[in-house]
Amino acid sequence: MMSANQSTNPDHNRTPALELSHLHKKFGSTQALSDLSLTIERGEVVCLVGHSGCGKTTLLKIISGVDSPDGGSVCINGTQVAGHSGFVEPENRKVGVVFQDYALFPHLTIEQNIMFGLRKMVRAQARNRARDMLELVNLTHMSDKYPHMLSGGEQQRIALARALAPKPDILLMDEPFSNLDRSLRDQLRHDTISLLRKLGTTVVFVTHDAEEALSTGDKIVLMRSGHIIQTGSPRELYDKPCCRYTADFFCDYNIIHGTIRSGQVDTAIGCFVTDYTGDECPAVVYLRPCDICPSAAETASEHTISAHIQNRIFRGDMEELTLKVGALAEPLKLRTPMRLPAHAQTAYIEVNRDRALVFKL
């Protein structure tokens, strides 16, 4: 049976949840957003990621209606809420927000906090909705408590319940787990995103943590200085970065300088294939530490490279080695579960050349 908020129009269901078109925003001399366009489909979990100051939070404020763009438009479910057609106030956008500090009202009980966003409902209906939300986040027994009586994880779950109570079309989450301990953060993030996927909620999730973005989003939007650098699935951004900025953001690489000649890059540790076939030019090869591994060989060959062990750090399930290799100016780092002899000074390594990334300089 179709619910009251579902449309019988199939074209409506194909309308994107959010369309941002050519957004511009400037604060003084700082260009916070510059010609930014993005489409988010219904039910997608999208991570906005980038270093501090890249424009992530500004973008959230414009989507929610807390701020307005200097140019461009915002459409939610096909309806323009900011742009040449006018401006829709935040309370009329059906957008929920979970803040980094949760922003719970200290003088209200947990149930009252959740009911705060339901003021247009009959009180009895609002209370029933609040109790449904408490049950959804498994905190029914906390309804009469005050925020200061809850742990950080419990406060985060209440903030989520409050944001979901008015049945928003889009949920914005601004680094909601950053104040929690690592182990609790990982588990709570998993539980929260699983719940939101089950509900079919469209989520825009802001983080500056690359690992969090890779493990959370259906789509990642990497930003820099108000621009979108690359958009795609987590695997696309990790495996096929469009530029050095994307590669550097999502992984710690070994960087090897070389020269492109006739479709390959010549380096001090051999050649790497590249698609570039133009004139000879300088380039860098990016190698992940996990794509260099110790070899069982005891001598160097065309497949193995001899390296001097400069440093080793034991990390429990793996060891990190710093290696000096031949004429390479910078040492190589590798991470391996293989344990070398405790007093070894030399290692023979193999390089997974198919996993290397090549960027022209």
Automatic annotation (TrEMBL):
SUPFAM superfamilies: MOP-like, P-loop containing nucleoside triphosphate hydrolases. GO terms for molecular function: ATP binding. Residues 18-250 form the ABC transporter domain. InterPro entries: AAA+_ATPase, ABC_SmlMolc_Importer, ABC_transporter-like_ATP-bd, ABC_transporter-like_CS, ABC_transpr_FbpC, Mo/tungstate-bd_C_term_dom, P-loop_NTPase. It is found in: Cell inner membrane. Belongs to the ABC transporter superfamily. This is ABC transporter ATP-binding protein. It comes from Paenochrobactrum glaciei. The lineage of its organism: Bacteria, Pseudomonadati, Pseudomonadota, Alphaproteobacteria, Hyphomicrobiales.
